[in-house]
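Hi L.,

As promised, Holliday junction branch migration complex subunit RuvA:
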Amino acid sequence: MIECLTGKIVHTERETVTIEVGNIGYLVYCANPFVFPLQKTTTIYTYQYVREDAIRLYGFSSRKERQLFEQLLQVSGIGPKGALAILASGSPLQVAKAIENEDEKFLTKFPGVGKKTARQMILDLKGKLMEALQAPSPDDIPAFEQVVEEENHVLEEALEALRALGYSEKEINKVKPKLQQENLEAEEYVKKALQWMLS
């Protein structure tokens, strides 16, 4: 298994990044591809998924994010696509807390997670996540819980504009995961955020 890749991000799309390592470009599926800055040397922690008709690399900004992905794959009804959608919509620690607190309402907000799957997540994973996810690890700074403003200055500029307009951190945090999936100019980020806040 490829534990991690360190190289330059040469291309980004909605679901993938291409990271060049030793003149070889690896296509890696990610929850939030735009977390990884273009044309900068980056380390992506990987999970190799193999089945009869596909071999794919899934990439994560920290080992803990990858660990949660692997745990989610063990839940009946959740495949790689569903696990990535959960990671894209919430931080690993938020998801772990929801499972520990048996917060089905929170879990069913994720794409493709109904009540049955939320209950299965709680049954399978409660008691298995919090200790490991809260333990400090060098690769988690700043990638695990810290927001990616340092790597996405345009998004930070948009968030500052929303604060200047009077929106609270709570309101901003609700739309931030969605914004992190986009690759826009600051003005467009603000427009998108306002649309979601007002809808």
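The chain has nine helices and five strands.

Thanks again for sending the construct details.

K.
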